[in-house]
């Protein structure tokens, strides 16, 4: 039993060491996840339409273009009416947006997003009337229509109200019908281009090496973001199969050392290659508190004195003592985090410290503030 326990412990220890070794290895990703084939892209569509059937929560009379749109729509049905002759509260003018993905065919459907353009309070219960969706070139590629799903509610009564989520925007699932196809050319017959999501010279070189190691000397990097690949003879009539084989190749992507700071939320994100040189840091917090009040002095009873009100102000200034801390030279983000935690710095303090370290030239990383 003792031998079995020791053997089980040894196997467990080996598995832990193997797991740690795998965790410390450079991450790998498929080319499919870090690059795309040039020419394969989405297209944005937009249109102007009307949502009918909202329960009195549509645009008011102040939204003039809604009444004009209703009059124009009725005219197409043979009904002539002036925009100033009616008041409708169950109609809302909206902008309709959609994304046309590559390789879609006529008859396919798309999800569309509907957003109020006027002063409507809610689109709940409304139906989008047939709306042409155009691309930037003015060509209509899809037509949208259907009930709007808001995903929230907004009610009010007696001066009180309750709401959940936003009711002035919603979606129409499968609400757009594709009427025109967009031609997609991924190759000129002999070559195709791979475009990296994050341009990087090292990553581009590794992609070239992975492709050449699998198919021979057919790939070359044009720049940090584009890799040109020749189509082998055996894949001349099977470009799709060749692209699928390319996308399955594994590559270890590289990344620049970067620190991203969001000062609005106090969020700090560091890359794995962030390092610092040895630097001394002193961080102190100056706190100022001002408290205002009123001191009231009342006269004795039955006297002819008057009440005296004297404003008072209490000012307190505190500056905690801050010792000078030396952050040692480090080569990875873990050491940087440990050093900053050892200094007892809060996220706000760390932001100021990192900015100071960068200004001193001791931060071996890009500092980006968003």
Question: Can you describe this structure?
Answer:
This protein is α+β, with helices and mostly antiparallel strands. It folds into four domains: 77 residues, 2-Layer Sandwich (Gyrase A, domain 2); 130 residues, no CATH class; 77 residues, no CATH class; 31 residues, no CATH class. The protein is built from seven helices and 23 strands. The chain has a six-stranded antiparallel β-barrel. Strand 15 and strand 16 form a beta hairpin. It is flat, with a radius of gyration of 33 Å.
Radius of gyration: 33 Å
Uncertain segments: 1-24
Main sheet: strands, sense, barrel: 6 strands, antiparallel, barrel
Strand order of the largest sheet: 3-4-5-10-7-6
Ends apart, CA distance between termini: 60 Å
Order of helices and strands: HEHEEHEEEEEEEEHEEHEEEEEEEEHHEE
Count of all domains: 4
Structural class designation: alpha+beta
The proportion of residues in beta strands is: 35-45%
Helix content: 10-25%
Q: How many strand elements?
A: 23
Q: Report the principal-axis shape.
A: flat
Overall pLDDT confidence: 81
Q: How many DSSP helices? A: 7
């Amino acid at each position: 039993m003792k031998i079995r326990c020791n053997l089980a412990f040894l196997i467990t220890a080996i598995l832990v060491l193997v797991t740690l070794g795998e965790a410390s290895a450079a991450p790998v990703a498929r080319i499919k996840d870090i690059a795309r084939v040039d020419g394969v892209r989405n297209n944005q569509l937009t249109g102007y339409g009307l949502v009918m059937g909202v329960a009195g929560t549509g645009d008011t009379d102040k939204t003039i273009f809604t009444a004009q749109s209703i009059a124009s729509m009725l005219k197409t049905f043979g009904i002539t009416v002036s925009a100033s002759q009616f008041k409708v509260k169950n109609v809302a003018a909206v902008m309709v947006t959609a994304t046309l993905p590559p390789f879609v065919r006529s008859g396919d459907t798309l999800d569309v997003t509907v957003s109020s353009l006027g002063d409507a309070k809610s689109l709940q219960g409304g139906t989008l009337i047939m709306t042409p969706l155009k691309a930037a070139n003015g060509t209509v590629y899809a037509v949208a229509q259907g009930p709007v799903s808001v995903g929230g509610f907004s009610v009010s009564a007696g001066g009180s109200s309750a709401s959940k989520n936003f009711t002035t925007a919603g979606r129409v699932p499968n609400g757009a019908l594709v009427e025109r196809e967009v031609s997609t050319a991924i190759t000129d017959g002999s070559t195709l281009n791979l475009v990296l999501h994050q341009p990087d010279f090292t990553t581009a070189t590794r992609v070239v090496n992975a492709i050449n190691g699998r198919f021979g000397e057919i790939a070359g990097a044009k720049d940090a973001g584009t890799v040109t690949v020749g189509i082998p003879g055996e894949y001349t009539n099977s470009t799709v199969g060749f692209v699928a084989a390319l996308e399955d190749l594994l590559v270890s992507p590289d990344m620049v050392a970067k620190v991203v700071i969001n000062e609005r939320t106090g969020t700090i994100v560091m890359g794995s290659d962030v390092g610092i040189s040895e630097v001394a840091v002193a961080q102190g917090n100056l706190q100022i508190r001002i408290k205002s009040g009123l001191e009231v002095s009342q006269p004795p009873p039955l006297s002819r004195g008057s009440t005296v009100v004297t404003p008072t102000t209490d000012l307190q200034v505190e500056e905690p003592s801050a010792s000078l801390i030396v952050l040692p030279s480090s080569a990875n983000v873990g050491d940087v985090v440990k050093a900053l935690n050892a200094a007892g710095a809060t996220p706000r303090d760390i932001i100021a410290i990192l900015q100071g370290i960068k200004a001193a030239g001791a931060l071996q990383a890009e500092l980006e503030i968003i």
